[in-house]
Design a protein that fits this description.
- The chain is 52% helix and 11% strand.
- It has 266 residues and is α/β, with parallel strands linked by helices.
- Strand 4 and strand 5 form a beta hairpin.
C-alpha cells in the first residue's frame, strides 16, 4: 500500500528526531538523502521504501499453535538480551464490530515506516476473528498493541504493556511515535490472573481451556443460555422431576391448589 508523502515524511521526521537524541544515525542518513534528491524525489523514495518495507517486514501471524514458540524465550538461538515484540490485536465484524479498518490500515503503513529504525521491535499480529480462542484466553480486546518483552531464559517474567488504539483517529504516525519516543514504556505493567505468560491460569495450564469456555459462551445464543439457566434452576428447585416436568409445575401447582380449595368448600 503506497503512503502519502506527508505521512512518510512526517513519520520519518519523528523517527529521525528521536534517534538523533540517542545516536543521530537515522537523522544523518535521512539528511544526506534529502540533500542529494529533490523534494519530490524524496517523497517518492519514501513511498517506495515504505511500501517495500511493509511487504518485506517479517510480521508473524500468531495462532493457537505457534504463539508460545514465537513469543517464548529462545536460549537455543543464543539470545542473551530481552527480545521486544509488538503484537497488533485486531478483529473483524464479530470481534471488533467492524471498527478496526482504520487501525488495520495504520498498522500496515507503520510496519513499513518502522523498517527505517534500526531499533524497531519484532512485529506480530493477532487476528481475533480467526483466532477467537486465543484472544479469549488472553482476554485481548481489539484494536490494541501489546508490547511484550520476551526474556532470554525460561522462568524469567515476561513484561507486557498494552496500548489501546482509538479506532477512529489512529494513524501510522501515532504508532511510529510510540516507538520513536518510547512512550509505550509509560503504560502500566499488565499483571493478574489472566497474564498469558506469568498468570496463575497460564502456569497451571488452565488459560487455553478458559479461552475455549469463553469462546463457547460468545457463540452461544443469549436466548439458549437463558433457557438453559431456567431449566437448571427449575430442576434444582424440583429435583424429583425432570426438566420438562419442572416446566409444567408453575402451571399445574395453582390448578391443584384451586381444586383442593374447591373440595374444602364442598
Amino acid at each position: 500500500m503506497l503512503l502519502s508523502s506527508s505521512t512518510v515524511l512526517s513519520a520519518l521526521a519523528i523517527l529521525a528526531s528521536a534517534q538523533a537524541q540517542q545516536q543521530n544515525v537515522l537523522g544523518d542518513w535521512f539528511s544526506k538523502l534529502s540533500s542529494y534528491l529533490p523534494s519530490q524525489a524524496v517523497a517518492g523514495a519514501g513511498q517506495a521504501a515504505a511500501s517495500a518495507g511493509a511487504a518485506s517486514n517479517n510480521v508473524k501471524a500468531l495462532t493457537l499453535e505457534n504463539w508460545r514458540q514465537v513469543l517464548g524465550p529462545k536460549p537455543d538461538d543464543g539470545e542473551v538480551e530481552p527480545e521486544p515484540w509488538w503484537v497488533f490485536v485486531t478483529g473483524g465484524n464479530k470481534t471488533c464490530y467492524g471498527l478496526c479498518g482504520k487501525a488495520n490500515q495504520a498498522w500496515e503503513q507503520a510496519t513499513g515506516l518502522l523498517s527505517f529504525s534500526p531499533s524497531a521491535p519484532n512485529l506480530a499480529i493477532l487476528d481475533c476473528e480467526a483466532n477467537r480462542v486465543l484472544c479469549n484466553a488472553w482476554v485481548a480486546g481489539p484494536p490494541a498493541i501489546w508490547h511484550i518483552t520476551v526474556p532470554p531464559t525460561e522462568g524469567a517474567p515476561t513484561d507486557i504493556r498494552i496500548t489501546r488504539l482509538n479506532s477512529s483517529t489512529i494513524t501510522a504516525n501515532n504508532i511510529v511515535e510510540l516507538h520513536a519516543t518510547e512512550s509505550w514504556k509509560e503504560r502500566k505493567l499488565y499483571q493478574g490472573a489472566v497474564h498469558p505468560f506469568d498468570g496463575p491460569l497460564a502456569k497451571t495450564g488452565l488459560m487455553i481451556p478458559m479461552g475455549y469456555i469463553l469462546w463457547a459462551f460468545s457463540i452461544f445464543p443469549s436466548w439458549a443460555l437463558m433457557l438453559a439457566i431456567s431449566l437448571g434452576s427449575r430442576t434444582f428447585m424440583y429435583p424429583g422431576d425432570g426438566p420438562l416436568e419442572a416446566l409444567k409445575l408453575p402451571v399445574a401447582l395453582p390448578q391443584q391448589l384451586l381444586q383442593d380449595r374447591q373440595a374444602a368448600i364442598d
